[in-house]
Amino acid sequence: MAETEFIAEPGIPQVKMIREFAAPPEILFRAYTEPELLKQWLGPRRLEMEVETLDVRHGGAWRFAHKDDEGTYWFRGVYHGEPSVESGIVQTWEYEGAPGHVHLETATFEPKDGGTRLVLNAVYPSVEARDAEFSAGMESGARESLERLDELVGTLQPV
Predict the structure, then answer these.
(1) 18/34 Cα distance (integer angstroms)
(2) Which of 13, 24, 69, 133 has the most other CB atoms within 10 Å of its CB?
(3) Domain ranges in the chain?
(4) What is 5-153's CATH number, 3.10.20.70, 3.10.620.30, 3.40.47.10, 3.30.530.20?
(5) pLDDT, tens digit (0-9, with 9 covering 90-100), for 17-50
(6) Which of 40, 46, 4, 12 minimizes the C-alpha distance to 147?
């Protein structure tokens, strides 16, 4: 199984996450943009996911929740540019429990050796904001999500 590489350089308010998948870019794009697929991989396994809105177009909004026995955790954002396999997906992310703490994430789907190299680039307003997300468990949550995505894309066929 592939491993997820995290790059968070000191003094730079950015995190890069890189992982290779044995599936074509179109499959990964579908997993990012179809609500029923997104629910199967985004977030830790212990959480149930509800997709309230997923309007994948320039200016379109998204909103979803992760739920467990202790509560419901809402997230939201907006898409920028026209999401596509070729240009990737650019979107903001905000946890509603910490209003105003927004980061910008770009996902690119690079064809590689019959599969895909997924590069996630998250840019934060400050190094402190980035580090706060790490302290809140972002790395383990992202790692588990990408493991789940790897499992899912192996079961999907191109449309």
Answers:
(1) 22
(2) 133
(3) 5-153
(4) 3.30.530.20
(5) 999 999 999 999 999 999 999 999 999 999 999 9
(6) 4
